[in-house]
Amino acid sequence: MVKVTPVPAAETRATVTSDAVLDAALTLFARFGYHGTALSQIAEMLGVRTPSLYNHMRSKQELLRSIVDRTTSGVLADFQTATDGLTDPVERLRSASLVYALRHATHRREAIVVNRDTASLDEPHRTELQDRRREHEHALRQIISDGVEAGVFQVDTPALASFAIREMCVSIARWFREDGPLPPDQVAEQYSRFALRIAGCTRDSAT
Amino acid sequence: MVKVTPVPAAETRATVTSDAVLDAALTLFARFGYHGTALSQIAEMLGVRTPSLYNHMRSKQELLRSIVDRTTSGVLADFQTATDGLTDPVERLRSASLVYALRHATHRREAIVVNRDTASLDEPHRTELQDRRREHEHALRQIISDGVEAGVFQVDTPALASFAIREMCVSIARWFREDGPLPPDQVAEQYSRFALRIAGCTRDSAT
DNA sequence: CCTACCGATCGGTAGG
DNA sequence: CCTACCGATCGGTAGG
Each residue of B74-113: pLDDT tens digit? Predict the structure, then answer.
Protein backbone atom coordinates (compact mmCIF):
# COMPACT_ATOMS: atom_id res chain seq x y z
CA MET A 1 0.00 0.00 0.00
CA VAL A 2 1.35 3.38 -1.00
CA LYS A 3 0.44 6.59 0.75
CA VAL A 4 -2.02 8.45 -1.48
CA THR A 5 -1.26 11.93 -0.20
CA PRO A 6 2.42 12.79 0.15
CA VAL A 7 1.48 16.37 1.01
CA PRO A 8 -0.19 16.82 4.42
CA ALA A 9 -3.91 16.17 4.44
CA ALA A 10 -6.37 18.79 5.56
CA GLU A 11 -6.40 17.44 9.13
CA THR A 12 -2.87 16.97 10.41
CA ARG A 13 -0.92 17.75 13.55
CA ALA A 14 0.13 21.33 13.63
CA THR A 15 3.86 21.98 13.44
CA VAL A 16 5.29 25.17 14.73
CA THR A 17 8.62 26.99 14.74
CA SER A 18 10.24 29.49 17.08
CA ASP A 19 9.75 32.19 14.49
CA ALA A 20 6.05 31.41 14.22
CA VAL A 21 5.65 31.69 17.99
CA LEU A 22 7.50 34.99 18.01
CA ASP A 23 5.40 36.31 15.16
CA ALA A 24 2.13 35.36 16.84
CA ALA A 25 3.32 36.91 20.09
CA LEU A 26 4.23 40.07 18.21
CA THR A 27 0.75 40.34 16.73
CA LEU A 28 -1.05 39.70 20.00
CA PHE A 29 1.24 41.78 22.23
CA ALA A 30 0.79 44.69 19.81
CA ARG A 31 -2.97 44.32 19.93
CA PHE A 32 -3.67 43.51 23.58
CA GLY A 33 -0.43 44.37 25.34
CA TYR A 34 1.95 42.01 27.12
CA HIS A 35 -0.17 41.58 30.24
CA GLY A 36 -3.33 41.59 28.14
CA THR A 37 -2.18 38.60 26.11
CA ALA A 38 -2.40 35.03 27.44
CA LEU A 39 -0.11 32.28 26.22
CA SER A 40 -3.27 30.34 25.44
CA GLN A 41 -4.13 32.97 22.82
CA ILE A 42 -0.74 32.58 21.17
CA ALA A 43 -1.20 28.81 21.18
CA GLU A 44 -4.68 29.11 19.73
CA MET A 45 -3.45 31.32 16.92
CA LEU A 46 -0.93 28.63 16.03
CA GLY A 47 -3.37 25.75 16.36
CA VAL A 48 -1.63 24.05 19.29
CA ARG A 49 -2.14 23.67 23.07
CA THR A 50 -0.42 26.03 25.46
CA PRO A 51 2.22 23.61 26.81
CA SER A 52 3.46 22.93 23.28
CA LEU A 53 4.74 26.49 23.10
CA TYR A 54 7.44 25.55 25.59
CA ASN A 55 9.17 23.50 22.93
CA HIS A 56 9.94 26.78 21.15
CA MET A 57 10.52 29.28 23.94
CA ARG A 58 11.58 29.42 27.57
CA SER A 59 8.91 31.77 28.93
CA LYS A 60 6.48 34.51 28.05
CA GLN A 61 9.01 37.02 29.31
CA GLU A 62 11.60 35.67 26.89
CA LEU A 63 9.26 36.34 23.98
CA LEU A 64 9.05 39.99 24.99
CA ARG A 65 12.79 40.14 25.46
CA SER A 66 13.43 38.74 21.97
CA ILE A 67 11.09 41.27 20.40
CA VAL A 68 12.71 44.17 22.23
CA ASP A 69 16.28 43.04 21.57
CA ARG A 70 15.71 42.56 17.87
CA THR A 71 13.99 45.88 17.45
CA THR A 72 16.43 48.07 19.36
CA SER A 73 19.36 46.47 17.54
CA GLY A 74 17.64 47.21 14.26
CA VAL A 75 17.07 50.85 15.15
CA LEU A 76 20.71 51.44 16.02
CA ALA A 77 21.92 49.56 12.95
CA ASP A 78 19.58 51.61 10.75
CA PHE A 79 20.97 54.80 12.22
CA GLN A 80 24.57 53.79 11.61
CA THR A 81 23.91 52.75 8.04
CA ALA A 82 21.92 55.88 7.33
CA THR A 83 24.42 58.38 8.67
CA ASP A 84 27.66 56.60 7.85
CA GLY A 85 29.82 58.76 5.64
CA LEU A 86 27.59 61.81 5.91
CA THR A 87 29.04 64.89 7.57
CA ASP A 88 26.54 67.61 6.75
CA PRO A 89 24.08 67.88 9.69
CA VAL A 90 21.20 68.54 7.28
CA GLU A 91 21.90 65.37 5.31
CA ARG A 92 22.51 63.37 8.47
CA LEU A 93 19.20 64.45 10.00
CA ARG A 94 17.34 63.92 6.76
CA SER A 95 18.70 60.39 6.42
CA ALA A 96 18.40 59.41 10.10
CA SER A 97 14.78 60.57 10.35
CA LEU A 98 13.91 58.96 7.03
CA VAL A 99 14.99 55.47 8.07
CA TYR A 100 13.49 55.92 11.53
CA ALA A 101 10.14 56.96 10.07
CA LEU A 102 10.27 54.21 7.47
CA ARG A 103 10.93 51.56 10.10
CA HIS A 104 7.85 52.63 12.04
CA ALA A 105 5.65 52.32 8.98
CA THR A 106 7.03 48.89 8.09
CA HIS A 107 7.55 47.40 11.57
CA ARG A 108 4.44 48.61 13.29
CA ARG A 109 3.89 45.75 15.70
CA GLU A 110 7.45 45.82 16.98
CA ALA A 111 7.31 49.57 17.57
CA ILE A 112 4.03 49.37 19.44
CA VAL A 113 5.22 46.61 21.75
CA VAL A 114 8.61 48.15 22.46
CA ASN A 115 7.10 51.53 23.21
CA ARG A 116 4.13 50.34 25.19
CA ASP A 117 5.34 47.33 27.14
CA THR A 118 8.68 48.61 28.35
CA ALA A 119 7.50 48.47 31.95
CA SER A 120 6.72 44.77 31.60
CA LEU A 121 10.33 43.89 30.88
CA ASP A 122 12.21 42.31 33.79
CA GLU A 123 15.48 43.74 34.93
CA PRO A 124 18.21 43.96 33.83
CA HIS A 125 16.67 44.08 30.37
CA ARG A 126 14.50 47.08 31.08
CA THR A 127 17.57 49.13 31.95
CA GLU A 128 19.37 47.84 28.87
CA LEU A 129 16.46 48.92 26.69
CA GLN A 130 16.47 52.39 28.20
CA ASP A 131 20.21 52.63 27.62
CA ARG A 132 19.85 51.76 23.95
CA ARG A 133 17.01 54.20 23.52
CA ARG A 134 19.07 56.89 25.13
CA GLU A 135 21.91 56.07 22.80
CA HIS A 136 19.72 56.68 19.76
CA GLU A 137 18.22 59.80 21.28
CA HIS A 138 21.61 61.28 22.07
CA ALA A 139 22.91 60.50 18.60
CA LEU A 140 19.99 62.35 17.06
CA ARG A 141 20.38 65.21 19.51
CA GLN A 142 24.04 65.50 18.61
CA ILE A 143 23.15 65.97 14.95
CA ILE A 144 20.83 68.79 15.91
CA SER A 145 23.39 70.43 18.18
CA ASP A 146 25.98 70.17 15.42
CA GLY A 147 23.58 71.78 12.99
CA VAL A 148 22.80 74.62 15.39
CA GLU A 149 26.49 75.26 15.88
CA ALA A 150 27.02 75.20 12.12
CA GLY A 151 24.20 77.68 11.71
CA VAL A 152 22.01 75.45 9.57
CA PHE A 153 19.48 74.61 12.32
CA GLN A 154 17.63 76.89 14.70
CA VAL A 155 16.22 75.51 17.94
CA ASP A 156 16.17 76.82 21.50
CA THR A 157 16.61 73.40 23.10
CA PRO A 158 18.09 70.60 20.95
CA ALA A 159 16.78 67.96 23.37
CA LEU A 160 13.21 69.08 22.76
CA ALA A 161 13.61 68.95 18.99
CA SER A 162 15.17 65.51 19.30
CA PHE A 163 12.28 64.21 21.41
CA ALA A 164 9.73 65.75 19.10
CA ILE A 165 11.25 64.23 15.98
CA ARG A 166 11.70 60.78 17.47
CA GLU A 167 8.23 60.49 18.96
CA MET A 168 6.58 61.92 15.88
CA CYS A 169 8.22 59.13 13.87
CA VAL A 170 7.42 56.44 16.45
CA SER A 171 3.77 57.39 16.33
CA ILE A 172 3.55 56.41 12.67
CA ALA A 173 3.25 52.85 13.96
CA ARG A 174 0.02 53.82 15.70
CA TRP A 175 -1.91 55.35 12.81
CA PHE A 176 -0.35 53.89 9.67
CA ARG A 177 -2.49 51.44 7.70
CA GLU A 178 -1.11 49.26 4.97
CA ASP A 179 -4.24 49.73 2.91
CA GLY A 180 -4.08 53.51 3.34
CA PRO A 181 -3.55 56.10 0.60
CA LEU A 182 0.21 56.53 1.07
CA PRO A 183 2.92 53.85 0.90
CA PRO A 184 5.54 53.71 3.67
CA ASP A 185 8.28 55.41 1.70
CA GLN A 186 6.12 58.43 0.88
CA VAL A 187 5.08 58.80 4.51
CA ALA A 188 8.71 58.55 5.55
CA GLU A 189 9.65 61.15 2.97
CA GLN A 190 7.17 63.67 4.33
CA TYR A 191 8.09 62.94 7.94
CA SER A 192 11.75 63.42 7.13
CA ARG A 193 10.81 66.87 5.86
CA PHE A 194 8.86 67.53 9.06
CA ALA A 195 12.00 66.62 11.00
CA LEU A 196 14.07 69.19 9.14
CA ARG A 197 11.38 71.79 9.74
CA ILE A 198 11.29 71.05 13.47
CA ALA A 199 15.03 71.53 13.53
CA GLY A 200 14.49 74.93 11.93
CA CYS A 201 16.53 74.05 8.89
CA THR A 202 17.48 77.26 7.15
CA ARG A 203 18.50 75.71 3.89
CA ASP A 204 15.90 76.27 1.19
CA SER A 205 16.26 73.00 -0.68
CA ALA A 206 15.69 71.08 2.52
CA THR A 207 12.04 71.86 3.02
CA MET B 1 -14.06 58.06 81.04
CA VAL B 2 -13.37 60.72 78.42
CA LYS B 3 -11.62 60.02 75.14
CA VAL B 4 -8.12 61.37 75.39
CA THR B 5 -7.50 61.90 71.72
CA PRO B 6 -10.29 63.60 69.78
CA VAL B 7 -8.10 63.75 66.69
CA PRO B 8 -7.28 60.40 65.09
CA ALA B 9 -4.37 58.65 66.72
CA ALA B 10 -1.41 57.44 64.70
CA GLU B 11 -3.06 54.06 64.18
CA THR B 12 -6.61 54.52 62.89
CA ARG B 13 -8.83 53.00 60.27
CA ALA B 14 -8.06 54.36 56.85
CA THR B 15 -10.77 56.40 55.16
CA VAL B 16 -10.89 56.71 51.45
CA THR B 17 -12.83 58.67 48.82
CA SER B 18 -13.77 57.99 45.21
CA ASP B 19 -11.29 60.61 44.10
CA ALA B 20 -8.51 58.97 46.06
CA VAL B 21 -9.25 55.62 44.41
CA LEU B 22 -9.26 57.23 40.99
CA ASP B 23 -6.01 59.01 41.68
CA ALA B 24 -4.27 55.86 42.87
CA ALA B 25 -5.60 53.97 39.84
CA LEU B 26 -4.27 56.74 37.60
CA THR B 27 -0.80 56.48 39.09
CA LEU B 28 -0.65 52.69 38.88
CA PHE B 29 -2.30 52.31 35.47
CA ALA B 30 0.18 54.86 34.10
CA ARG B 31 3.07 52.94 35.57
CA PHE B 32 2.12 49.30 35.01
CA GLY B 33 -0.73 49.48 32.53
CA TYR B 34 -4.36 48.50 33.07
CA HIS B 35 -3.79 44.74 32.87
CA GLY B 36 -0.51 45.09 34.71
CA THR B 37 -2.17 46.67 37.73
CA ALA B 38 -4.05 44.60 40.32
CA LEU B 39 -6.81 46.06 42.43
CA SER B 40 -4.84 44.81 45.41
CA GLN B 41 -2.09 47.28 44.51
CA ILE B 42 -4.55 50.16 44.43
CA ALA B 43 -5.91 49.07 47.79
CA GLU B 44 -2.43 48.78 49.24
CA MET B 45 -1.53 52.28 48.07
CA LEU B 46 -4.57 53.56 49.95
CA GLY B 47 -3.98 51.46 53.04
CA VAL B 48 -7.14 49.36 52.78
CA ARG B 49 -8.10 45.82 51.75
CA THR B 50 -9.20 45.10 48.20
CA PRO B 51 -12.94 44.59 48.89
CA SER B 52 -13.15 48.03 50.50
CA LEU B 53 -12.51 49.61 47.12
CA TYR B 54 -15.96 48.49 46.03
CA ASN B 55 -17.51 51.10 48.32
CA HIS B 56 -16.06 53.74 45.97
CA MET B 57 -16.28 52.18 42.53
CA ARG B 58 -18.23 49.60 40.59
CA SER B 59 -15.41 47.76 38.88
CA LYS B 60 -11.84 48.03 37.67
CA GLN B 61 -13.20 48.70 34.21
CA GLU B 62 -15.19 51.65 35.52
CA LEU B 63 -12.00 53.22 36.86
CA LEU B 64 -10.48 53.11 33.40
CA ARG B 65 -13.66 54.47 31.87
CA SER B 66 -13.71 57.42 34.28
CA ILE B 67 -10.12 58.28 33.50
CA VAL B 68 -10.71 58.14 29.77
CA ASP B 69 -13.97 60.09 29.85
CA ARG B 70 -12.55 62.89 31.94
CA THR B 71 -9.46 63.22 29.81
CA THR B 72 -11.09 63.21 26.39
CA SER B 73 -13.66 65.76 27.55
CA GLY B 74 -10.86 67.96 28.79
CA VAL B 75 -9.00 67.76 25.50
CA LEU B 76 -12.02 68.83 23.46
CA ALA B 77 -12.90 71.60 25.93
CA ASP B 78 -9.32 72.86 25.79
CA PHE B 79 -9.46 72.97 22.03
CA GLN B 80 -12.72 74.93 21.97
CA THR B 81 -11.51 77.45 24.53
CA ALA B 82 -8.19 77.87 22.77
CA THR B 83 -9.55 78.44 19.29
CA ASP B 84 -12.80 80.23 20.11
CA GLY B 85 -12.90 83.61 18.44
CA LEU B 86 -9.72 83.06 16.43
CA THR B 87 -10.05 83.01 12.66
CA ASP B 88 -6.46 83.18 11.46
CA PRO B 89 -5.23 79.61 10.84
CA VAL B 90 -1.79 80.51 12.14
CA GLU B 91 -3.18 81.77 15.45
CA ARG B 92 -5.61 78.88 15.68
CA LEU B 93 -2.87 76.30 15.20
CA ARG B 94 -0.53 78.11 17.56
CA SER B 95 -3.16 78.20 20.28
CA ALA B 96 -4.55 74.69 19.75
CA SER B 97 -1.12 73.08 19.80
CA LEU B 98 -0.06 75.16 22.79
CA VAL B 99 -2.88 73.95 25.03
CA TYR B 100 -2.54 70.41 23.73
CA ALA B 101 1.17 70.35 24.49
CA LEU B 102 0.64 72.00 27.86
CA ARG B 103 -1.96 69.43 28.87
CA HIS B 104 0.45 66.60 28.16
CA ALA B 105 3.13 68.14 30.36
CA THR B 106 0.70 68.75 33.22
CA HIS B 107 -1.53 65.65 32.94
CA ARG B 108 1.03 63.02 32.18
CA ARG B 109 -0.59 60.05 33.85
CA GLU B 110 -3.91 60.62 32.13
CA ALA B 111 -2.26 60.91 28.73
CA ILE B 112 -0.22 57.74 29.19
CA VAL B 113 -3.23 55.68 30.24
CA VAL B 114 -5.55 56.99 27.55
CA ASN B 115 -2.99 56.43 24.82
CA ARG B 116 -1.70 53.08 26.01
CA ASP B 117 -4.71 51.26 27.42
CA THR B 118 -7.29 52.06 24.76
CA ALA B 119 -7.52 48.41 23.81
CA SER B 120 -8.47 47.48 27.37
CA LEU B 121 -11.64 49.56 27.26
CA ASP B 122 -14.84 47.56 26.84
CA GLU B 123 -17.27 48.43 24.10
CA PRO B 124 -19.09 50.67 23.49
CA HIS B 125 -16.64 52.95 25.27
CA ARG B 126 -13.68 52.05 23.12
CA THR B 127 -15.56 53.18 20.04
CA GLU B 128 -16.65 56.36 21.80
CA LEU B 129 -13.06 57.13 22.69
CA GLN B 130 -11.96 56.64 19.10
CA ASP B 131 -14.75 58.93 17.93
CA ARG B 132 -13.67 61.70 20.26
CA ARG B 133 -10.08 61.32 19.26
CA ARG B 134 -11.07 61.51 15.63
CA GLU B 135 -13.05 64.64 16.38
CA HIS B 136 -9.99 66.37 17.78
CA GLU B 137 -7.79 65.10 14.98
CA HIS B 138 -10.18 66.33 12.29
CA ALA B 139 -10.51 69.73 13.94
CA LEU B 140 -6.75 70.11 13.90
CA ARG B 141 -6.54 68.86 10.35
CA GLN B 142 -9.15 71.39 9.28
CA ILE B 143 -7.03 74.22 10.64
CA ILE B 144 -4.12 72.98 8.59
CA SER B 145 -6.22 72.60 5.44
CA ASP B 146 -7.60 76.10 5.95
CA GLY B 147 -4.09 77.45 6.31
CA VAL B 148 -2.91 75.68 3.18
CA GLU B 149 -5.83 77.11 1.25
CA ALA B 150 -5.09 80.57 2.63
CA GLY B 151 -1.48 80.19 1.56
CA VAL B 152 0.00 80.50 5.06
CA PHE B 153 0.83 76.79 5.48
CA GLN B 154 2.65 74.42 3.14
CA VAL B 155 2.14 70.68 3.47
CA ASP B 156 1.64 67.91 0.95
CA THR B 157 -0.80 65.95 3.09
CA PRO B 158 -2.63 67.82 5.87
CA ALA B 159 -3.53 64.54 7.59
CA LEU B 160 0.14 63.68 8.01
CA ALA B 161 0.96 67.05 9.52
CA SER B 162 -2.01 66.72 11.85
CA PHE B 163 -0.90 63.27 13.03
CA ALA B 164 2.67 64.45 13.45
CA ILE B 165 1.70 67.48 15.53
CA ARG B 166 -0.72 65.59 17.73
CA GLU B 167 1.53 62.66 18.49
CA MET B 168 4.54 64.88 19.04
CA CYS B 169 2.55 66.70 21.72
CA VAL B 170 1.14 63.50 23.25
CA SER B 171 4.65 62.14 23.65
CA ILE B 172 5.56 64.97 26.03
CA ALA B 173 3.76 62.89 28.66
CA ARG B 174 6.34 60.15 28.15
CA TRP B 175 9.55 62.11 28.62
CA PHE B 176 8.60 65.18 30.65
CA ARG B 177 9.90 65.30 34.22
CA GLU B 178 8.61 67.78 36.75
CA ASP B 179 12.08 68.23 38.18
CA GLY B 180 13.56 68.82 34.72
CA PRO B 181 15.17 72.00 33.42
CA LEU B 182 12.10 73.42 31.65
CA PRO B 183 8.68 74.19 33.16
CA PRO B 184 5.55 72.96 31.32
CA ASP B 185 4.70 76.33 29.78
CA GLN B 186 8.12 76.72 28.21
CA VAL B 187 8.00 73.22 26.78
CA ALA B 188 4.54 73.94 25.41
CA GLU B 189 5.78 77.19 23.91
CA GLN B 190 8.56 75.47 22.00
CA TYR B 191 6.31 72.62 20.89
CA SER B 192 3.76 75.11 19.62
CA ARG B 193 6.52 76.57 17.49
CA PHE B 194 7.42 73.08 16.25
CA ALA B 195 3.78 72.65 15.25
CA LEU B 196 3.84 75.79 13.12
CA ARG B 197 7.06 74.63 11.53
CA ILE B 198 5.63 71.22 10.68
CA ALA B 199 2.72 73.01 9.03
CA GLY B 200 5.24 74.90 6.95
CA CYS B 201 4.11 78.25 8.27
CA THR B 202 5.36 80.92 5.90
CA ARG B 203 4.84 83.85 8.22
CA ASP B 204 8.14 85.09 9.65
CA SER B 205 6.92 86.08 13.10
CA ALA B 206 5.52 82.62 13.65
CA THR B 207 8.75 80.74 13.96
C1' DC C 1 2.87 17.30 19.86
C1' DC C 2 -0.49 15.98 23.77
C1' DT C 3 -3.30 15.41 28.58
C1' DA C 4 -3.31 16.22 33.27
C1' DC C 5 -2.28 19.10 36.68
C1' DC C 6 0.20 22.64 39.83
C1' DG C 7 0.20 26.90 42.98
C1' DA C 8 -0.65 31.68 42.57
C1' DT C 9 -3.33 35.39 41.66
C1' DC C 10 -6.97 37.66 39.52
C1' DG C 11 -11.61 40.58 39.95
C1' DG C 12 -15.44 40.36 42.51
C1' DT C 13 -19.24 38.85 46.21
C1' DA C 14 -21.39 37.64 50.82
C1' DG C 15 -22.17 39.11 54.99
C1' DG C 16 -21.31 41.72 58.99
C1' DC D 1 -14.17 49.39 56.90
C1' DC D 2 -13.22 44.19 57.52
C1' DT D 3 -12.66 38.62 56.99
C1' DA D 4 -13.79 34.79 54.38
C1' DC D 5 -14.40 33.01 50.20
C1' DC D 6 -15.85 32.28 45.10
C1' DG D 7 -14.89 30.58 40.19
C1' DA D 8 -11.87 31.67 36.52
C1' DT D 9 -7.65 32.07 34.57
C1' DC D 10 -2.90 32.75 34.63
C1' DG D 11 2.15 30.96 33.46
C1' DG D 12 4.39 26.93 33.83
C1' DT D 13 5.69 21.66 34.84
C1' DA D 14 5.43 16.43 34.69
C1' DG D 15 5.40 12.83 31.97
C1' DG D 16 4.61 10.44 27.86
Answer: 999 999 999 999 999 999 999 999 999 999 999 999 999 9
The one-letter amino acid code at A79 reads F
Q: Say how far apart CA A41 and CA A53 lie, in whole Å.
A: 11
Which nucleotides in chain D lie less than 7 Å from some protein C-beta? Answer: 1-4, 9-15
Closest nucleotide C1' to the C-alpha of B49: D2
**B47-70 pLDDT tens trace:** 999 999 999 999 999 999 999 999
Distance in Å, residue A44 CA to nucleotide C11 C1' = 24
* Alpha carbon distance B96, A42 (integer Å): 42
* pTM, rounded to two decimals: 0.91
Distance CA A21, CA B194 (A): 41
Q: What is d(CA B114, CA B61) in angstroms, rounded to the nearest whole number? A: 13
Q: Is residue A4 part of a domain?
A: no
- Residue A118 domain boundaries: 61-198
Examine residue A33 and state whether it is found in any structural domain, yes or no: yes
List CB contacts of B4: < 8 A, sequence separation 6 or more: none
Nucleotide nearest to A37 (CA to C1'): D10
